[in-house]
């Protein structure tokens, strides 16, 4: 039998995933193969005919079985790109979603001075993707990542260091801002915002692999917003900015909450699918 080359492994994997009905079959195949072989994407173009070793073929088969059992590719390879930066994942962190980049974009757009020595807080930091991306763009800013999960904080710290902002990052274990004093110029959060009763209906890849703590927003999915908006005035400096991710159908609820807590909505920003995805106050 002819040896299994990189090119043939990629082609076979793509077909396997397409037959299994995965919409992102080609991308899934590429990411899994690159991760198992520990090679950069360019190596598939420059050296497609290198044969896989027996060990590599075995690891690829194991990764393929996990994917066919509907484990997300990001979980299998243990990493996901966000804002052009690599983020390590752990079972305690949500897989960063492209839609969440709307929060980074909105915050950067509304900040009056990107060179200022800003103090940023990220509540429910998870992998740290919001905080680390912002610190990457704001060279003089310092940030605090807060989470209720110690495992998430460990992963976030690792991501801050790997992406060169470790010296400007602090991490703290706290239930929202219970253990946190004020003084922030910018607060960001992608809180859990799915109503508890909706969780069982979520896509299998989310329901079985993302941590419940990062998804469940209480009976109506709005509990974390009551906490964050209720605490905003205590935590922000005068004129400070709060930017939160929201569910596609929550913009009107956020308007009511902003009214109730005396906060001004500065912008409702939309994601790539044109759903309202970020509210800035
Ligand atoms: N957007 C996530 C999803 O697709 C939910 C994330 C959250 O609750 N913050 O399920």
TrEMBL record:
Residues 9-78 form the Release factor glutamine methyltransferase N-terminal domain. InterPro entries: DNA_methylase_N6_adenine_CS, HemK-like, N5-glutamine_MTase, PrmC_N, RF_methyltr_PrmC, SAM-dependent_MTases_sf, Small_mtfrase_dom. Its EC number is 2.1.1.297. The keyword Methyltransferase applies. It comes from the Bacteria. One of its GO terms (molecular function) is peptide chain release factor N(5)-glutamine methyltransferase activity. S-adenosyl-L-methionine binds at residues 124-128, 147, 176, 190. The keyword Methyltransferase applies. HAMAP family: RF_methyltr_PrmC. This is Release factor glutamine methyltransferase. The lineage of its organism: Bacteria, Pseudomonadati, Pseudomonadota, Alphaproteobacteria, Hyphomicrobiales. The gene is prmC.
């Amino acid at each position: 039998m002819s040896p299994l080359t990189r090119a043939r492994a990629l082609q076979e994997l793509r077909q396997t995933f397409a037959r299994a009905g995965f919409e992102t079959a080609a991308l899934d195949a590429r990411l899994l193969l690159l991760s198992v072989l520990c090679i950069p994407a360019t190596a598939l173009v420059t050296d497609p005919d290198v044969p896989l070793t027996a060990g590599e073929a075995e690891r690829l088969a194991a990764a393929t079985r996990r994917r066919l059992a509907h484990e997300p590719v990001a979980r299998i390879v243990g990493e996901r790109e966000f804002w052009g930066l690599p983020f390590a994942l752990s079972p305690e962190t949500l897989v960063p979603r492209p839609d969440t980049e709307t929060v980074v974009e909105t915050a950067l757009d509304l900040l009056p001075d990107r060179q200022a020595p800003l103090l940023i807080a990220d509540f429910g930091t998870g992998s740290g993707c919001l905080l680390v991306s912002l610190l990457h763009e704001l060279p003089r800013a310092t940030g605090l990542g807060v989470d209720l999960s110690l495992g998430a904080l460990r992963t976030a710290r690792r991501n801050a260091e790997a992406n060169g902002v470790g010296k400007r990052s602090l991490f703290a274990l706290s239930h929202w801002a219970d253990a946190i004093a004020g003084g922030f110029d910018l607060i960001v959060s992608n809180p859990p915002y799915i109503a508890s009763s909706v969780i069982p209906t979520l896509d299998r890849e989310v329901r079985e692999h993302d941590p419940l703590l990062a998804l469940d927003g209480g009976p109506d999915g709005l509990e974390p917003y009551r906490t964050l908006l209720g605490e905003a005035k205590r935590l922000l400096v005068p004129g400070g900015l709060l930017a939160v991710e929201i569910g596609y159908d929550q913009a009107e609820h956020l308007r009511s909450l902003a009214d109730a807590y005396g906060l001004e909505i500065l912008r409702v920003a939309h994601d790539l699918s044109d759903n309202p995805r970020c509210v800035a106050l």
